[in-house]
Amino acid sequence: MLERKKSYVADGVGTALPVFVVEAGGGVLVDVDGNSLIDLGSGIAVTTVGNSAPAVVRRVAEQLEAFTHTCFMVTPYAGYVDVAERLAELTPGDHAKKSALFNSGAEAVENAVKIARVATGRDAVVVFDHAYHGRTNLTMAMTAKNMPYKHGFGPFAGEVYRAPMSYPLHDGLSGADAAARAIDVIDKQVGATNLACVVIEPIQGEGGFIEPAPGFLPALADWCREHDVVFIADEIQSGFCRTGDWFACDHEGVVPDLVTTAKGIAGGLPLAAVTGRAELMDAVHGGGLGGTYGGNPLACAAALGAIEEMETHDLAGRAREVEALVRGRLEKIAAEHPVVAEIRGRGAMLAIELCRPGTLEPDAARAAAVSAYCHRQGVVTLTCGTWGNVFRFLPPLSISDELLEEAFDVVAEAFAATAP
Ligand SMILES: *Cc1c(COP(=O)(O)O)cnc(C)c1O
């Protein structure tokens, strides 16, 4: 199968593990050879409710029998409206909200920028160091890391400016000081009156699970409000119970003007959304937003099923339980291995950053070695970070404590086995 893949699938599509999955659920992936792997990645934060959660399967099967597609822009159907209603209820803030649905996270981010530009009549977009917003032309421009996301793919979209992120481990700044530093860059290098929107991941994903210091996000949101700049939270990775609340913004009571969602929203089917203040969303002319498949009926049914699972099983609460268990295990590893510079993240979105002991020099080689060891032992782990030195954990919330303990036995073993 690997040889056939090599023959027919483009080499640019990388794969982390040399396996072919035939079954998945409850935190276990089964491959064609009958190997069982414990899943600490959730297909990159997607299968939060599991790989075939009962409510998702039931609703998608019913929808599949009824119809697969009509195109909402031609002949609408209720599922799309139902998802938009649930998004209005669940996203931060109690103001009037509306949504537009898309297929991928990158598409949602692009559309959020389009909406902000029309609503403000301004062009500039501010993003942050270590940001990840996708792989389309505009979102590549917004993404920070060159390899592998941008290398050779330019020229990139213009009017995208980058501000310094709050990164407590490396900058030692308080949230207020880091915000003042970012605002100074924005003010001097862009100017508020040219600025349509500030786009930020409340906890950065691919960039290294960087959690800004408390106060950073509220200060930025306040500055945006003062200057009529649209504050956009990219909650594509951090949203939908992942961090122990519905959205990562909820932890500090930050209310974004627009929020982008995808990944965990629909239990594995492709769906994404922009949700935000009704007056901003409605600034766009009729027909200006859409796409052939955006808000596909099967994906909408899946989202309603995933939200049902999150509510009936209190998966935000489950994410907090997962955090308690995993943090305990990570603290033990950190106590024994000085290469662990920091444990961070929230809920079931946790990471450890590896630096050479006693320094803040990234140790990407160790992260790769630990991850490779876990893969050989059948635990699916992911790395991330601008320097590739962050080991991240995104288990599905359908996983049992027993499996988590077993997986972290392997992670602990991996640190011991790769110690210099
Ligand atoms: C994954 C991700 C995206 C892009 O989503 P795709 O569905 O892969 O296009 C954008 N922003 C964040 C924060 C992400 O984690």
TrEMBL record:
Give the domain of life: Bacteria
Query: What are the GO BP annotations of this UniProt entry?
Result: gamma-aminobutyric acid metabolic process
The root-end lineage is: Bacteria, Bacillati, Actinomycetota, Actinomycetes, Propionibacteriales
Q: Which reaction is this enzyme known to catalyze?
A: (S)-3-amino-2-methylpropanoate + 2-oxoglutarate = 2-methyl-3-oxopropanoate + L-glutamate; 4-aminobutanoate + 2-oxoglutarate = succinate semialdehyde + L-glutamate
The family annotation for this protein states: Belongs to the class-III pyridoxal-phosphate-dependent aminotransferase family.
* Named cofactor requirement(s): pyridoxal 5'-phosphate
Which CDD domains would you find in this protein's record? OAT_like (cd00610)
List the protein's name: (S)-3-amino-2-methylpropionate transaminase
Give a Pfam family name: Aminotran_3
EC number(s): the record gives 2.6.1.19, 2.6.1.22
MF-aspect GO terms: (S)-3-amino-2-methylpropionate transaminase activity; 4-aminobutyrate:2-oxoglutarate transaminase activity; identical protein binding; pyridoxal phosphate binding
Q: Kindly give the InterPro entries that the UniProt entry links to this protein.
A: 4NH2But_aminotransferase_bac, Aminotrans_3, Aminotrans_3_PPA_site, Class-III_PLP-dep_AT, PyrdxlP-dep_Trfase, PyrdxlP-dep_Trfase_major, PyrdxlP-dep_Trfase_small
Listed pathway(s): Amino-acid degradation; 4-aminobutanoate degradation
Under Gene3D superfamilies, the record lists: Aspartate Aminotransferase, domain 1 (3.90.1150.10), Type I PLP-dependent aspartate aminotransferase-like (Major domain) (3.40.640.10)
Q: Which UniProt keywords apply?
A: Aminotransferase, Pyridoxal phosphate, Transferase
